[in-house]
């Protein structure tokens, strides 16, 4: 027997890739071309096949590791075929000798010896006063109107200690996949079916050595120790099968069965795979299952929250009109699309537009930047916007709240955390300036700058984007006169800022050139009335015109 180290093959890139799935475990017998690990780069997901058959002796990586071409993956013991052949030859000439060696073999005789050893050990370890041991047969439960189902997978091996309700096998028919639970605890002594068999209700699956505790109706003294008894799991109908199917992936003791593409999709849309009901072979989760789970979550929102609207859009083949190219959305854009769609369906939007005279503020900002240049700090108009919004949120606390899921109460927050939308090459992200009302404008300017750098370098942590109570989306550096920003649920308002421009403003005697800043406040009309929104924007405009108001 030899031990080979299986390494990462040529994957078309010298950059490190992530190990996102390990498809084997120590002790597994694998065939050539069986998938052993799944790797994922920024560009693709790759399943790494076994170059030869053997038994997994040792895993050299774990999920989450970053590895390159040539890095070791696992140690594989080869030569199992020669051992099995030798064992079979020995069995033909000397059955007693084969019985001694067969327990370590993966062949049929090895299975029988393991079963015999399992029976002996289970009986020998039984306390004398606990009752009798029985070898019981577990059969396929009632499959309803399903005539037969293919045995896809055994989840136990001969010699395994079996817990009650533990999954022992997976069957698949044309209609569904079904995991068969153990009806009792014990030790597996034999597998009485093989992968690929077509089984029907009552077909034998495994033999289990159990232990019966003596009760009032104790078995007769004539009962043999190894009496064989046939037991079927609790009969199931179609609804029971569906329940088992829906709960299969939710079993916290077992990982969800899903391929790399499905896992990637789940990560991108923020879905926990253990909560998704599978519909594929072996209880595997498909892409359609993830989409259906997201649709169910949206449809589960109460009517008062404005959700539940789902449009069945037709698929259109655009290529028949001319050349096309399909460009896959990155993770940030997919998450943004999901969140914005949810917000648009959930929140009844209204937008209030106004303009703030920032002529004096802009002059002050430029003067202060000359003074602060020596300190390495730079004031931006966005920093003034954050401070002005913090002041307005103190004055109008309903804008700093969230509507309770039931729609029956408002959660008013005693803290003011303002999110600032930052454009990156992968899309918009919204880092949060915490306790903005307690910070000075210079401190806010420095923090916003640091968060923007982290965002563009993909260094933002999840905590940097959580806990916001109000958001600002500024397009001032690009252009435009007004727009309708979408409220960032569960917040109830968001301020859009467009490009400032010089306009003639009448002062009662003459027109004066003034620098005007367009503001667009979108709000949740369930929480905020139009009059309150107009007052909020008016207060914000007056604060930006004279920032001394923010100090009061």
Please characterize this protein's 3D structure.
With 552 residues, the protein is of the alpha+beta class. The chain has four domains: 2-81, RNA polymerase II/Efflux pump adaptor protein, barrel-sandwich hybrid domain (OB fold (Dihydrolipoamide Acetyltransferase, E2P)), CATH 2.40.50.100; 131-211 and 225-248, OB fold (Dihydrolipoamide Acetyltransferase, E2P); 249-312 and 326-346, Dihydrolipoamide Transferase (Irregular), CATH 4.10.320; 349-551, Chloramphenicol Acetyltransferase (2-Layer Sandwich), CATH 3.30.559.10. 27% of the residues lie in helices and 26% in strands. It has eleven helices and 28 strands. The strands form seven sheets. Strands 18, 21, 24, 25, 26, 27 and 28 form a seven-stranded mixed beta sheet that branches. Strand 4 (35-40) and strand 5 (45-49) form a beta hairpin. 27% of the residues are buried.
